[in-house]
Structure prediction request, 355 residues.
Amino acid sequence: MKFAAAMSVAAVALAACGSSTSTSPSGGGGGGASAGTGAAGGSGGSGLKVGMAYDVGGRGDQSFNDAAAAGLDKAKTELGAQIKEASATNGEAESARQERLQQLIDAGYTNVVAVGFAYGKSVGAAAKANPDVKFAIVDDASPDSTASNIDNITFAENEGSFLVGAAAALKSKANHVGFVGGVNTDLIKKFQAGYQAGAKAVNPSIVIDVKYLTEPPDFSGFASVDKGKAAAEGMYQAGADVVYHAAGGSGGGVFTAAKAAGKLAIGVDSDQALTAPADVRDVIITSMIKKVDVGVYDFIKSIKDGTFKSGLHVFDLKSGGVDYSTTGGKVDDIKSKLDDYKQQIIEGKITVPKK
Prediction:
């Protein structure tokens, strides 16, 4: 009885996050057919039903999750997809993530996108239990999430981070920059490795401070503005004048600290000079753009078109999957140098480390 009651509460909570034909992406009312009767095969219009399970921070983090949400919104507008959304909470058990995926499926949303590597094991288990459902997982291609019904959407974050690392070094007057990582994982270390390589390509003697906000299994480092602010404040006080964050929603704290210190910052995933609060946008010189929206949209479109392919799909500089932003014109004076580095990476003249 206790288990049944818990499942009922969870189902109600999930339904409250969903949307179908409402104009608001996170509006109420989703619902739909039961598991197995949705659009697992990929028809268009009202038959295309897509569930999205966000990582910690969810829609509204102005970074990673919002980039995924942009792809979902485009699919809703251009492909007529009906959507339902749910978000992870910090510190939740693995079973909670798998249950979230299953609830989406049971509600008829039998094309499912999981945002973030933390869903790796959950997606693998759900894919095995639901072989007719098609899944996409962002940022994971581990054995746990490899199956014939899973699209593994990954990115060359190290390549994009190289470019913003070069930008940081070119813009730094103190020859001292910083990196704030949300959670100390192999994925975020790719951002760090690329950033350090780019900065040192410009100035081999540059000082680079590094701080991770939390250690696994604590993923609050992706959704703690206060922790991001404290880490960046420490770096600015120590002499850094540019700080790059790969910390999801915590990056808002980095921007606040940069504004207060009169220093500079670099965004991540989305073009944060467009998405961050207006009062801090002027401190963001560039962002490492990770086109999660493209990967998500391509997955959904492949369902509609009947061209779904499982396996690893890497979005790198050459394919346009990562890049640096120019909003605000703050890197216009160094753009030719950044583009030269970019071309060298694409041509294989520069190999960017992953760790």
In short: The radius of gyration is 20 Å. The first strand starts at residue 49 and ends at 54.
